[in-house]
Amino acid sequence: MTAPVQPALDGSVPEQRKTRTVQQAEDYETWLAEVWPKFIAAAASGRTFTTYEIADTHNLPAPPNPQAHWGRLMTLLKDEGYIRTAGWACTGRPTAHHSGVRTWKGTAAARRAAA
User: Fold this and answer.
1) DSSP H or E stretch at residue 85
2) What is the structure's pLDDT at 1?
3) Which residues of 48-57 are buried (b: 16+ CB within 10 A; e: fewer)?
4) Are 104 and 39 in contact (CB under 8 A)?
5) Which of 62, 71, 81, 96 is 20 to 30 Å from the Cα of 13, by its Cα?
6) Closest of 20, 19, 17 to residue 6, by C-alpha
7) Of the candidates 32, 92, 93, which has an alpha carbon nearest to the alpha carbon of residue 64?
8) Domain tally, the chain
9) Do the Cβ atoms of 105 and 115 come closer than 8 Å?
10) Is the residue at 19 inside a domain?
11) In the prediction, which pLDDT does 2 show?
């Protein structure tokens, strides 16, 4: 059942917002195998990005434990030499209210690996 729509003061009825369903992976290894190539490609591009930008652009599933696994993914990529920290930005994630998040940039090694 859908909630009733509140009309605007001028009497017009606003369009309903479209929401996107985010899938959640069953296990960490399967999730990691799915998202890893997308982040490697982002690192090889040489542009600065946030984790959410890549996940949103590619409609990636959420990990089994989102509070821990997104950060773990970025730590693995950094430890493997694919990315480095680039600074901070406000997130574009709708539920985060423009909180500050880490930005990442691919390394020269990531660009060579993609070539």
Assistant:
1) strand 83-90
2) 52
3) ebbbbbbbee
4) no
5) 96
6) 17
7) 32
8) 1
9) no
10) no
11) 60
In a domain, 70, yes or no: yes
**Does residue 15 form part of some domain?**
no
Q: Is residue 23 predicted with pLDDT exceeding 90?
A: no
Q: Which domain holds residue 47?
A: 28-114
Query: Three-state DSSP class for 21?
Result: coil
| E strands present in 9-99 | 48-49, 83-90
- Spatial separation of the C-alpha atoms in residues 60 and 39, rounded to whole Å: 11
CATH code, 65: 1.10.10
Tokens of 94: 């709708």
Q: What is the pTM of this model?
A: 0.74
Confidence of residue 89 (pLDDT cuts 50, 70, 90): confident
End-to-end CA distance of the chain, in Å? 51
The contacts of residue 40 (CB under 8 Å, 6+ apart) are 77, 82, 110, 113, 114
Q: Is residue 79 a part of any domain in this protein?
A: yes
CA-CA-CA-CA torsion sign (61, 104, 73, 112):
positive
